[in-house]
HD family phosphohydrolase
Amino acid sequence: MFDSSEVTDLVSLTAWFGAYCRSFRSADPEVQRNFDLKELHTRKVCEAARLIAAEGGERRQMLAQVAALCHDLGRFPQYREYRTFLDSESVNHAHLSAQVLKQSSLLDFLPKEERDSVYFAVRLHNVFQIPAGLPAATEDLLRLVRDADKIDIWRVFIDYFFAPEGERASAAGLGFPDLPYCSDEVLKAVEAGRMVELTMLKSLNDFKLLQLSWVYDINFVTTHKLIKERSLVPQLAATLPDDAVVRGIVDRVQGYLEDRLAANSAT
Ligand SMILES: [Fe+2]
């Protein structure tokens, strides 16, 4: 694996990332499937970050991809050590990603201010709420990475829910029991236009609703457009129980998305 001191730009960082993934290779096909899932996820988050940052100039687009490439570095040691992607049962994977950055020279090719922005965008990418008081450039990068991450997490879960059981990456479902109902507290949150919190989850259906509620936490109109173009809301909805309450909630989320798109096309 080549050394992180050889990283001089986005291209060499991308090559380093490939070598980093290979360094976790496992002979166990189930373990390897979970590593492959995170490698592909990272590459797709990079693509989404490039699209979402497209209007902000080349430098912003490059930084968005650097942050995207680094955001889940911690997933690899997390899974190797704990065999789970559930932070509550292991470690905060975003902190672990930030630690990998701190212990390497990966970001040394960037000026100090940009290096700090990427570092905090990585470290904070999974927080429930963005903290106040961040420098504007850091907050922008954090919002970009969070949008790009969500766009691809939806793809991962839609693939997971539609895959035959034997082909699923075992750690992707996070171990929630596949019970036939949704919790009231979770339904109420989505109905009220609020994000669902991880602590509310009791079933896989609750987890699907949590993902639906992420639509309320999207920052950029390009991301809203990608959600619509990729039919992510209807695809996620198709995995939920087909009853009147759930249909009402899906309509509420879809309506929110349409409102955001309409508001933007009117300005
Ligand atoms: Fe993450």
Remarks:
- The mean pLDDT is 93.
- The CA atoms of residues 238 and 253 lie 14 Å apart.
- The two ends are 49 Å apart (CA to CA).
- The pocket of fe (ii) ion is lined by residues 71-72, 93-94, 125-126, 149 (CB under 6 Å).
